[in-house]
Design brief:
alpha+beta; 3 domains; six-stranded antiparallel sheet; 8 helices; DUF3592 domain-containing protein; DUF3592; transmembrane; membrane; transmembrane helix
């Protein structure tokens, strides 16, 4: 284990030193530019000039080589230092612009200005421009290579220590895998989002330090309208500002509710049995009713080339509103009892690229930062806690009285506008009910579309237009659908009418005799939320969705029950 840790440390050290070395090399050029600002200007004559090109990986880089003569304090000197950026590069058009400027002076037999070091007259330079774009590019190596290398070194040390702790816990509790994690010892579990703002803030700082120099360089170079592809660079500081805003929100939430915990009466949660516990909320809440959601989810991390993608699939989820009882000032307690169906997977982190997590989420809308807590809890099959009684659909109930079930779903929480007209009872699902999800999806699609179109305009690349533009347009349309989708359902005795759609609504009519069932289903999730839709299944084998993008399964089930009651469905 120590040997593996040492190898990782050496490997990370190579990355760190490489990134640090390239950045220091870039700083030396910037230091020379800064020194040259006080050098003395003299007239110089160009004796040779060459534009050096280097082609590779479908790109061409440029550099300027040459020599010139000048007089300083009666003495003649010759130098071949054109600028402080030797070699070739394609960071902007600096090298080409400099060559054209010097070539024009040479063709017209004009003198150029050289800047001479008064303390060392043999040292001079023709161009002393600070290249912010080059400095920004070199800083990327520090934060990417250096950051990755430092992360590998720290992770190797931390990982070796964590593996030792896990090994010791496995030896102590060979038949109790829920005791193999340090944070699962005992009956109290901490909020997993606590201090998350530190990670987000750190990442936001790194992101902005990398993106701002390049943005400043693009602004300094100008020609934004002539080269519209440059405008894409402004997407990076925009993302940086959004991340800073998210970090501030997480900080305020952590300051208000960060010390909240979950207490389980028995550890772990019993798959196929009953479990009791309490959520202890440290912080003031505006309402006594709190939403609890228990989810079993699979987290898969895939690496494709240089890209790593993480997807979360919700395997099972149940939610319920429960009453919070104030125990003391700024402290509330939510007692619950949960029955988990058999056959669900146990908590597992053996493979970090394919994990099973059981997460309890606690939510309530607040003025200022909303109450939103997440707790990862252990869930396993425990033989002596299996429940012989059939599990009901209402899986949450009050822990203080197991016979008293918690408040069931309430369709009025779905944001439905209820009214009556000449045709019967009307339920209207307004557009813009999920602004955050819709706007985020729309902006993501817009960015991808803009990248595809921008690259196509600049380079006439159909591949990028189809790949980025096509995917972006699809995601953009999904965002429009989430924001604008509306549904109007009218019920009367024996008949259900529905008019639904985003841009061009369609109308449907179902008689009770042709309705086989009205069901809840789900084919969409975002993060830790599962979105449901209501569909009518007909006796002819068709299935038509009549309401979409609904949260909280028990509320949706209550609404389905209301529809069935209205039309007299049996």
């Amino acid at each position: 284990m120590k040997k593996g840790s040492g190898c990782l440390t050496v490997f990370g050290g190579v990355f760190f030193l490489a990134g640090l070395g390239i950045f220091i090399w870039g700083l030396l050029s910037s230091y020379d530019v800064w020194r040259a600002q006080s050098w003395q200007p003299v007239d110089a004559k160009i004796t040779s000039l060459e534009l050096v090109t280097s082609t590779g990986d479908n790109s061409t880089s440029y550099g300027v080589k040459g020599s010139y003569q000048y007089l300083y304090q009666g003495n003649s000197y010759q130098s071949n230092q054109i600028n402080f950026y030797p070699g070739t590069d394609n960071i902007g058009s600096y090298q080409e612009d400099l060559y054209r400027k010097l070539q024009r002076a040479r063709n017209n037999q004009q003198s150029v200005t050289a800047y001479v070091n008064p303390n060392e007259p043999s040292e001079s330079v023709l161009d002393r421009t600070m290249r912010w774009g080059m400095l920004g590019f070199q800083s990327i190596f520090l934060f990417v290579f250096g950051g990755v290398g430092l992360g590998i070194m720290l992770w190797s040390r931390w990982g070796a220590k964590a593996l030792q702790e896990v090994g010791a816990l496995k030896e102590s509790h060979p038949e109790e895998p829920w005791l193999w994690r340090k944070e699962w010892q005992g009956q109290y579990f901490k909020n997993t989002t606590k201090n998350a703002f530190k990670f987000i803030a750190f990442f936001a700082v790194i992101w902005n330090l990398i993106s701002l120099p390049a943005t400043i360089a693009v602004i300094h170079e100008g020609n934004l309208l002539k080269e519209p592809l440059k405008l894409l660079v402004f997407l990076f500081p925009l993302v940086g500002l959004i991340m800073i805003g998210v970090a501030v929100l997480y900080y305020l939430r952590d300051k208000k509710y960060g010390e909240s915990t979950v207490e389980l009466q028995q550890t772990p949660l019993a798959i196929g049995g009953k479990s009791s516990g309490s959520v202890i909320i440290n912080g003031n809440i505006n309402q006594q009713e709190v939403m609890l959601t228990l989810s079993c989810q699979r987290v898969v991390r895939r690496r494709t080339g240089k890209e790593t993608r993480t997807t979360t699939t919700i395997i099972w989820q149940d939610d319920q509103r429960l009453q919070a009882k104030q125990t003391q000032q700024n402290e509330y307690r939510v007692d619950f009892n949960v029955k988990i169906p058999e056959g669900l997977p146990e908590s597992s982190g053996k493979n970090p690229n394919n994990k099973i997590e059981w997460v309890l989420k606690v939510e309530q809308k607040q003025k200022g930062p909303d109450l939103k807590l997440m707790f990862e809890l252990p869930a396993f099959v425990v033989a002596h806690r299996l429940d012989d009684e059939p599990l009901t659909e209402d899986l949450f109930s009050h822990a203080d009285n197991l016979q008293e079930t918690a408040k069931g779903g309430d369709w009025r929480y779905l944001g439905i506008v209820e009214s009556y007209n000449n045709y019967g009872k009307e339920y209207y699902f307004k557009p813009f009910r999920h602004k955050g999800l819709g706007i985020a999806t729309f902006l993501f699609g817009l960015i991808f579309t803009a990248i595809g179109v921008g690259i196509f305009i600049a380079d006439t690349s159909w591949l990028f237009l189809i790949a980025f533009g096509g995917i972006g347009l699809l995601v953009l349309l999904i965002g429009v659908n989430v924001m604008l989708f509306r549904s109007r359902i009218i019920t009367s005795s024996g008949v259900l009418h529905c008019r639904k759609g985003a841009l061009i609504p369609k109308t449907y009519r179902f008689n009770t005799a042709e309705i086989d069932d009205i069901v809840r289903d789900s084919n969409m999730s975002s993060g830790d939320k599962r979105y449901y839709h209501v569909a009518v299944k007909t006796t002819a084998g068709k299935k038509e969705v009549i309401a979409k993008h609904l949260l909280n399964s028990n509320d949706v089930d209550d609404f389905i029950g209301q529809l069935k009651s209205d039309i007299g469905y049996r």
